[in-house]
Amino acid sequence: MSAHLSSSLGTPTPTHSRLDPHARVSALILAQLKTADPASWSPPWHGVDPLPRNALTGRRYRGINILVLWAAAQANGYADARWATYRQWATLGAQVRRGERGTAVLFYKDLTADGADTTAAAADDALHFVARTSAVFNAAQVDGAPDLAASLPSPELTEPLSILAAFVAATGARIIEGGTRACYMPASDSIHLPPQAAFHSAEGYAGTLAHELIHWAGAPHRLHRDLTGRFGSQAYAAEELVAELGAAFVLADLGLARSPHPDHAKYVAHWLPLLRADPRAFTTAASHASRAAAYLAGLHEAGGVAIGAEVPALSSEQDGAGADAIPFIKVAA
Length: 333
Prior knowledge:
Blueprint: H1 14-17, H2 24-34, E1 53-54, H3 64-76, E2 82-84, H4 86-91, E3 95-96, E4 103-110, E5 129-138, E6 142-143, H5 148-151, H6 160-171, E7 174-177, E8 183-185, E9 190-193, H7 202-217, H8 228-231, H9 235-254, H10 264-277, H11 281-302, E10 328-330
Parallel strand pairs: 1-2, 7-9, 7-10
Antiparallel strand pairs: 2-5, 3-6, 4-5, 8-9
């Protein structure tokens, strides 16, 4: 193997090489924030990058690995969403260039021996798995990679609200439009959202709605996401981080640009202390976010609504016209 493998997110350092795999992405985010204003800082999950995929299998990476690969792409300027191990690229007839550094992704290895009787340990399955890392390389780091146009469709960014409308309609979420605050109300199981005209861009509107949909998906009768046991008094901050990441996963899956939440600086201030105190917080939040995004995607697929289908665009300026695809209830601001 001629390429130099590294288990870091970017340029490796001795400190990063000794970090727990779960802490690597936290270390990168904290390093970025040391030299940036949280109010203007652009985290790896903002932008137009699609969800990272394995170049050989076509499968999307999940959970913390999405953040790891987005962070590496941001740090190195990679525009291609395809990643694979050295051997997988070789299988595709490509060659990792000499001197290229790999990016470590996390996976869990099953330690259960073949043929072993595991019935007695069924309640403690976690003991049979151990976290390991594997180095992957971006398509920009190899020669002879298959043509991008032939393997991945280009994201459609032209009519974000039309695309989002079909997605949201399939969830069945009850959305009340009006007022000045966006929130999910557990008591009424409804999402409250300011009118579209109150947002600076269609992307900002879409991002806020996706953020609240992640909260909605965590309701007790859906995913039953209760973070109090894991995070205690920091549960609110952890939930907001889950929603922030989950919204990015949803919009990336739809091929939509992701822009900072209107309260971006406030949310960063909430979860930054959590990240500093708990290096595994990002891993846990990303796992919950990935699960919520998959849950919403499942509702969309079950509804049989094709992304990109002709759906009336949302507009709060046409007396409700065009908003029929989403169960909006208009209220006075």
